Every structure is written in structure tokens, then in C-alpha cells.
Amino acid sequence: MQKWRQQLESTFPIPQLRELQRTIQEQSFRFRITLEGILFVVVTLAIGLAAMNTGAQLLFLVFSMMCAFWVFSAILADASMRRLQIKRHLPREAVMLEPAIVRFSVTNTKKRWASSSLRIADYLEGERLLGAAFVSQVNPGETVETSYQVVFPNRGRYKLRTIHVISHYPFGWIKRAFPRLLPAEILVLPSTLSITTLLENAQVDLGDMGSPRKGRGTGLHTTRNYVPGESIRDVHWKLSARSNKLIVREYENEEFKRASVIFDNRLPAKVDAEAASRFEAAITLTASVLKELIQRGFQVELITASGRVGFDQRPNHLNRCLRSLALLESVPLETGTKLPSPGDRSAVVVQVETPENASGLAPQGTRVNVMQFLPILEEALQKAPSATSGKPLTMETMESPALA
Fold first, then answer.
1. Which of 198, 186, 158, 387 is nearest to 291 (CA)?
2. 87 neighbors 371 (Cβ within 8 angstroms)
3. In sequence order, which residues have a C-beta less than 8 Å from that of residue 35 and are 6 or more positions away?
């Protein structure tokens, strides 16, 4: 036995064996007798005992017919759930505390048998129930679309692994479940809230900025004598009339206002639950500050101890910053990691602070403390849809209201 095990381990390494064992367990057929099925079994056994005690042929006939119903039920259920092609369609990204739609396309490749009363339960890694969709009937050769809505309670990357095709068909006596491996991932971005009033209360200076260089903007840079060949539209007629010679305007070169948003994600190695909660609130606050600044026309950059997202103002830049925040983790203070300096010294610096990392890298007037933000976050949590709470994968899970 030991020699056989060593030979098996030499052929398949332990991690591969564990993954193979996990795959077999996930793909194993599951079933459960319902209350109606238990009652039918009790009645069947009672009639069988009565037939044996009395020898009545009619009771034997009824008993055999009831047993045939079980065989017929198994054949119909197996024919209904076999040869189904199921594809999961996930959104590329979702937003924390906002509803997201997960869609399934179910194709019945059978030529004669329809598939009826199917529930598709979707599970995360770790066998946690995420949600479920229902299909009433899929005719032979037909493709049916179905979906379910899910609310993710936290930011980060969610890994989906298996789906379970569940059915009571045809009589509702047995609940059958066939697992399918459909690994996928979805990135959940931090939520963003309206914090205009909060920034005003924090007295963050977000004034307009001019450019010391000339260009084709709208602000006046200087005036000079007219050079033949220049556009007549740039002539300053009032100054030309006073000086009896043509004077033209030179304009400021338009530049976007710039802002550096700093979030110090360095924390002590050991923090309590409240500190971890404030850290998550600070990430939501940072995302909200980024959105507010971009809407005000700023080129923004995000600076954390884990890295930097450079200046930009294009619409997809906010998503780049949010994706970075979605995967951001705390950095232990003990490592001595330092924050990068702002990429532009003339940029407005806005720092998001928590009680654990109030380092004061930005001027006092441009610091936003997460403690001011907590009441707004709590109010937003109350208004947000209820987050989907995963449940362990058991046979009792199939009785969950999420599968109704």
C-alpha cells in the first residue's frame, strides 16, 4: 500500500492530487428526498407489507405500480438534466453595494426531451452560495437566457468555481443536483459617494490654475506688436487705437488643474476590527475624492504605499484608480515602506487620513479625515440593497429562499 502511494505521488504531486479529489467531490451527484417523497415511500412500504400479509393480488399490483413510479421518476429526471450546455456571463466589473446581474445561457442539445424546472445555483470558491436563477423549460435545441441579481458586500476579487443544476422534476419527490465546474472571476470596485459638502467643510482649496506659458487658451498672457500674416482675430483693437499701431493678444496655454490624492495604507501589523473597518471606509472615501476631483476637471493621480497611478483625466482613468483601490491591501509599518512623493509639485495635494496613519503629508487645509466620513457611509449602507450573504454548500442549502 505504501509503495503504491509513493508511486502515485511520484506520478501526481500532492497539490494535483488534492485538486483532483476536490474536482471529483464537486462533480459528484447529489440528491435529497423531499417531505413528499418520504410520505410516498411510507405509503409504498405500507402497501407492500399489507400485500405480503394478505396475499391480495390487487395490493401487489398497486405496490408494483408505485415502485414503477420511482423508476419512471428517475428516468425522467435523468433525461431532463442531461446534455445541457450552460454558460455563465459575468460583468467585467461590479461596484460594491450596488446590484450586479449575472446571466446564464442554457442550451438543450437533446433532440426529443425537454428540460423542465431547473434551478442554477452559483457558488464562490470555498463552497459559498452566491445566488441562483430559475429556468421553467428548455425545449430540444433551444437556448434560454436567465439571470440573478447579486450585491457584493466588499471590494476585491471574487472567484466563482461551480454551479449546481438542481431540479425536483417530475414529481417533486427527490431533489437532484448535478455540479458543473465553471471557474471565473469578477472584480468588485469600491463604492463612490457624493462628498461635495464634505470637501467644502474640509476647506480643500481647489481653485483654478493658470499657466505661465503662452498658447491657445482663453486667458490673456501678454500683448505685442502685430506681425504680418497673423490672424486678424487676435488683434486687440482698443490698444491698437490708442497706440496707432496693430497690437495682438497672446493667450495662456490651457492646462488641466492637477491634484495628487494620497492614501497612506501603512498600518501596524496587528489591528483590531474597528481599525480594519476604518481602513475600508478610507478606501471608499479615497474613491469618492477621486471621482469628485475628476468631475471638477482635474487631472488626478493616486498615491499609496503600494504604488502610484499617474496623472490623467480621461473617463477610464477613474476606473484605473478604482481597480487599484479594489485590490489595495495594507502595508505593515514595520517594513519601513515610504510613500512616493507627488508627481507634480504645483498640484493640489489631498490626503485621506485615518486615526492610525495621520501622517500629515499634505497641508492642513487639504486633509480629509475618515472620521468625518463615517456618518455618510453609515447612511449610504442603510440605503444600499441588502448584500448577498454566502452560505456553505450543503444539501440544506438547496432549501434556501435564494433558490425559490
1. 198
2. no
3. none
Q: Is the pTM of this model over 0.70?
A: yes
Low-confidence ranges of the chain (pLDDT < 70): 1-29, 198-222, 229, 231-232, 250-256, 357-365, 381, 383-404
Task: State residue 2's pLDDT score.
Answer: 54
Instruction: Sort strands 99-108 and 143-151 into parallel, antiparallel or unpaired.
Output: antiparallel
CA 130 to chain centroid = 12
CA distance 98 to 131: 15
SS3 content of the chain, % helix, strand, coil (to 5): 35, 35, 30
C-alpha cell of residue 173:
419527490
* Whether residue 183 has a cis bond before it, omega within 30° of 0: no
Chain-centroid distance of CA 85 in Å reads 25
> Closest Cα to residue 137, out of 75, 70, 81, 71?
81
Distance separating alpha carbons of residues 95 and 86, to the nearest angstrom:
25
Residue 234 CB partners (closer than 8 Å, separation 6+): 248, 249
Q: What is the pLDDT of residue 364?
A: 58
Residue corresponding to grid cell 490673456: 220
Cβ(298)–Cβ(204) below 8 Å: no
Fill in the amino acid letter for 101: I
Question: Is the CA virtual torsion 224, 228, 230, 233 positive or negative?
Answer: positive
d(CA 200, CA 283): 20
Q: How many residues does the chain have?
A: 404
**Contact predicate 107/84, CB 8 Å:** yes
Instruction: List, for residues 92-151, the tens digit of each pLDDT value.
Output: 899 988 889 999 999 999 888 888 888 899 988 877 888 889 998 999 999 999 999 998
* Contacts (Cβ under 8 Å, ≥6 apart) of 288: 192, 193, 194, 195
The three three-digit cell numbers of residue 70, written as one number: 420511482
Q: Which three cell numbers stand for residue 15?
A: 497539490
State residue 358's pLDDT score: 61
The pLDDT of residue 254: 46
CB 264 within 8 A of CB 305: yes
Q: What is the pLDDT of residue 49?
A: 92
C-alpha closest to that of 368 among 171, 252, 236, 201: 201
User: Could you give the C-alpha distances from 211 to 253, 296, 300, in angstroms and in order?
Assistant: 6, 18, 17
